[in-house]
Amino acid sequence: MTVDIDKTDGPADTPPTRPEAIKAIPVRHYGRYVSAVIALAALGAIVYAFSQGRINWGAIPDYFFNDRILSGVGKTLLLTVLCMLIGVVGGILLAVMRLSKNPVTSSVAWFYIWFFRGTPVLVQLIVWFNLGLVFEYINLGPIYKDEWSQFMTPFLTALLGLGLNEAAYMAEICRAGLLSVDEGQTEASHALGMSHSKTLRRIVIPQAMRVIVPPTGNEVINMLKTTSLVSVVQYSELLRVAQDIGQTSGAPAEMLFLAAAWYLVLTSVFSVGQYYLERYYARGSSRSLPSTPFQKIKANLLSLSNRSSAGGTA
Amino acid sequence: MTAMVKAEGVHKSFGLVEVLKGIDLEVKQGEVFCLIGPSGSGKSTFLRCINHLEKINAGRLYVDGELVGYRQKGDKLYELKDSEVALKRRDIGMVFQRFNLFPHMTALENVMEAPIQVKGVNKGQARDRARELLERVGLADKAGNYPSQLSGGQQQRVAIARALAMDPKLMLFDEPTSALDPELVGDVLDVMRDLAESGMTMVVVTHEMGFAREVGDSLVFMDEGVVVESGDPREVLTNPQHERTRSFLSKVL
Fold it and tell me: Range of A204's domain?
C-alpha cells in the first residue's frame, strides 16, 4: 500500500507551487459487503416464501388494469384531492382563527382541533354515516330538503369525514408555518398602514408556505392511504373494489396484494411530486439546491468510475 | 411652528418592568430629532409608541396634534379601532434596525406594495413612483433584486424608499445603521441627510454621533426611561451638563 505514496518520488515534473494531489487507498468497508449479502438473502427468503404460498399470482396482472379497479383508483385519487382541498383551506382558516386576538374564534378553533384530532377518523366516518339518527331530515329552507339517509351518500360521508379530520391536522401545520414568519414582517407591514387581513394575505401567508408545503406533501400521501378506510361506508374506492372483486372471483388475497401494489404506485408518484415541489420552494432560501435523484445517480456513477480508474493506475 | 410629535409624561411598562418613566418632549415640524442613550434606556420603545406599535400606559402622546391610539371625548378616552390606527400609520414612515424588507418580493415590489394595497394607487403609477424613489436612494439598477441579493446597506435604503412611498409627514428611524457593516453606514446616512435637507420631519434613534451633530436639529439623551438632557446636538455632544451624559459620551465618542 505504501507503493502509492512512494510515487511522490519524482517531484521534478510537478510545479513546485502546489503539492501533488493526494491519492490514497480508501478504507475498505467490509461490513457493507457482509450486510448487503445478509439483506439480499433475507429478501430472497421472503420472496421465495411468498412464491410458494397458496396465492395465485397470475390473477394480479389479469385484474391490474380491470375497468372496475381503474375506476376505484380514480375515486381514490378524487377523494384524496378533494379531501386535501378541504383540509388545506379549512386548515389555514382554523390556524388564522386560532392565532386571532378574538377569544371566541380562537376558542372555537381550539375546540374543533381538540375534537377532530382526539377521535379516530374511522369512528368519525361511521358517525357521519349514522347521523341520520340525530337529524332525520336535512332542511336548508327553500334551497334543499331531503331525508338524511338520501342526502348523506357514501361519497359525501367520505368527503366530510376525511376532509374535516384533515383540516384539524392541517391547522396545526399551518399554525406552525404562520408562527415561523418573523414578527418584524408583521410590524413592517402594520407600520406601512396595512390592515391585519392584508398583512396576513400579502406578507405572512406567502412566507409561511415554505414551511407549510413539505409536511403537507406528507399529509397528501397519508390521505391517499387513509382513503382506504372509507370502504366501511360503502364508497367504492380502490380497496372496496378490490375486496368486491376478490369475493366474486374467488381470489380475495390476490386482490388485496393488487390493491397494495396500486397504493405503492400512487404514493411513489406523489413522493416524486413532493420532492420536486419542495425543491421549488427551497429556491432563494438555500444557496445551492439539493441535487435531483438523476443528478445523484450520475454523480455516483462518475465517482465510481473515477475510483476504479484511480485504482487501475495504482 | 406646530409640534409634529408631543409627549407629555409618557409611561410604558412591560409587565412589571417600567421602560418609560415619564417622557416629555416636543418634535417640531421639519426638524431632525435625534434620540441617543445606552441600550435599554427606552429610546426604541418610545419610538415604537409614536406609531402605536406599543401602547403607552400613562401620559399623552400626540402626532400632528392628534392623540396616538385613542380618541378623547370630554374626559374619557376611547381606544381606536385597528382600522383607525392603520389609517394614522399611513402618514408615519418607519425604518427598522433589521430592515424587515419583505423577502418574497423584489426591491421594486417592496416599494410598490403599500401604495397599492393601502392607498389603492394603480399598478402603473405605483411602479413609476417606486422607480423614482429607488433612484433617489441610489438603487435604480437593483429594482429587480430580491432582498437576499442585496447588501445590508442596500436593503436599508430600499426600506427607506418603501417608507417614503406612502408620502409620510413624519419618518421614524430605529437605529437604522446598527446592523450594518461599517463601510455601508455612509450610504444610508447620505440618504437620510438628503431626506433631512428636503424638509422631512425625522425622529432618529441612533448611535451615530457624527450624524446627530451634523444633521440633527435637536438631541435628547435618555437613560433608564427618562430624558436626562436635551438641547442642540452640537452643544450637548461637546459640552454635556450631566455626569451620566458625560460618561456615556466618553464611551461612544
Answer: 72-133+140-283
